[in-house]
Amino acid sequence: MTDIAIEYDAVLGVFDAVYENGDIKIVGKRGGADVAGEKQEILQRLRQRLQTQRGEWSFDTDVGLDYFGLIFGDNVTDEAIVAHITAEVSRGYRIRSVLSLEFERLDDRRARVRGNVDTDLGTMTFDEEIGA
User: Fold this and answer.
1) pLDDT tens per residue, range 14-72
2) Which residues of 15-50 are buried (b: 16+ CB within 10 A; e: fewer)?
């Protein structure tokens, strides 16, 4: 699948398209073997899955994390949060299994999720800030 590359702009606080030589960068297969682009596509889709509030996407309301009920809810253990995030990550595009996952609260509305996943292209590492 071909997709537009996106990345987080910390200055503006938004996700934006990636530009390369004045053009929007495209990732994924483009008529040949583009393993680097495919790896970037897998990580981009994982980032989107982690940044989506469950129920937010009208095409598949089961995609995403339960931010209000589980991730930032009251009286929820870190073990329950890790189990929830692990289940969501394991449903990701081309992800075979979750090898490791760490959850760290940054404040009441933000957290960091780090881990390693086994994909059809090998082991990949991710490190994402989630929440507000």
Assistant:
1) 667 777 777 777 665 554 556 777 888 899 999 999 999 999 989 999 999 999 899 99
2) eeebeeeeeebebbeeeeebeebbbbbbbbbbbbbb
Structural domain span for residue 57 = 2-131
What is the rounded distance in angstroms from the CA atom of residue 36 to the CA atom of residue 78? 33
- For the chain, helix (H) and strand (E) counts, in that order, are 2, 9
Residue in 128, 108, 126, 127 with CA at minimum distance from that of residue 39: 126
Compute how many other C-beta atoms are within 10 angstroms of the C-beta atom of residue 72. 20
State pTM to two decimals: 0.74
Name the domain count of the chain: 1
Model pLDDT for residues 72-123, shown as the tens digit of each residue? 988 999 999 999 999 999 999 999 999 999 999 999 889 999 999 999 999 9
Distances (CA, A) of 94 to 73, 105, 123: 30, 28, 11
Specify the CATH number for the domain of residue 79.
3.10.450.40
